[in-house]
Amino acid sequence: MDKLLYYAVTLIESVLGVFGVRSFYDQPRYAVVEWLDRGVEIRAYERRVAVETDARGQGDGEAFGRLFRYITGANRAGDRIAMTAPVEAGGQRIAMTVPVEQGTGGTMRFFLPHAVAAAGAPEPTEPGVRLVEVPPERIAALRFSGRITPEARAGQERVLVEVLREAGRAPAAPPFFMGYDPPFALPFLRRNEVAVRLGA
């Protein structure tokens, strides 16, 4: 994709994201296999491919920058790769930006579009950036809207854990956050989720 066109499309997607329009973003595929109380969904996710780097926690702009550089050409093919959603943040809290995942070990991750993963994602050229394959898994998720504050996230995590406990489900790892909108999206239009990975 032409560099100017790539950045123009990214800008348009960001502007539309302010109003909760997220249909342009490639998202990991899943099926809802069960509904629990209070809107909790049990989802079966397909295999995904991501690029990740170690992060220092909330607002780690350097980690985000390394991953952003990968999708804008810092890879062996020099390819520009479309952005995806959701943001996933676990363990330490991070700033909400699309598309990022942060795992419990302080890892920040961008999921790659399906077409890029199927064709073979290009190797990163920057030190500390690596490709990973995320196997199929089951995740319990609770959707909510509004601003993402530590208090709001903690409250939703408590609800999720309580519903799972009442249903006799044991999380396999600590809760994490998935956000589907850029940080400047209107709060009442945001799609936010707290989630936990479930054991087999």
What does this structure look like?
Strands 1-2-8-10-9-4-5-6-3-7 form a 10-stranded mixed β-sheet, covered by helices on one side. With 200 residues, the chain is an alpha+beta fold. It has a single domain (3-197), classed as Alpha-Beta Barrel (Multidrug-efflux Transporter 1 Regulator Bmrr, Chain A), CATH 3.20.80. The protein starts with a helix and ends with a strand. The longest helix is centred in the C-terminal third of the chain and has 17 residues, at 150-166. The protein has helices at 3-17, 61-71, 114-119, 150-166; strands spanning 30-35, 41-45, 48-54, 87-90, 101-102, 107-111, 129-134, 137-144, 176-179, 192-197. It is globular, with a radius of gyration of 16 Å. The protein contains 4 helices and 10 strands. A hairpin with a 5-residue loop joins strand 1 (30-35) and strand 2.
What's the structural blueprint in terms of helices and strands?
Layout (H helix, E strand, L loop, with lengths): L2 H15 L12 E6 L5 E5 L2 E7 L6 H11 L15 E4 L10 E2 L4 E5 L2 H6 L9 E6 L2 E8 L5 H17 L9 E4 L12 E6 L3
Parallel strand pairs: 4-5
Antiparallel strand pairs: 1-2, 2-8, 3-6, 3-7, 4-9, 5-6, 8-10, 9-10
Short description:
The chain has 200 residues and is of the alpha+beta class. The chain has 4 helices and 10 strands, in the order αβββαβββαββαββ.
* CATH level 4 superfamily: Regulatory factor, effector binding domain
Q: Give the number of DSSP strands.
A: 10
The poorly predicted ranges are 16-22, 90-99
| CATH architecture type | Alpha-Beta Barrel
Q: What is the total domain count?
A: 1
Strand content: 25-35%
**What's the average pLDDT?**
79
Helicity, as a percent range: 10-25%
Strand arrangement in the largest pleated sheet: 1-2-8-10-9-4-5-6-3-7
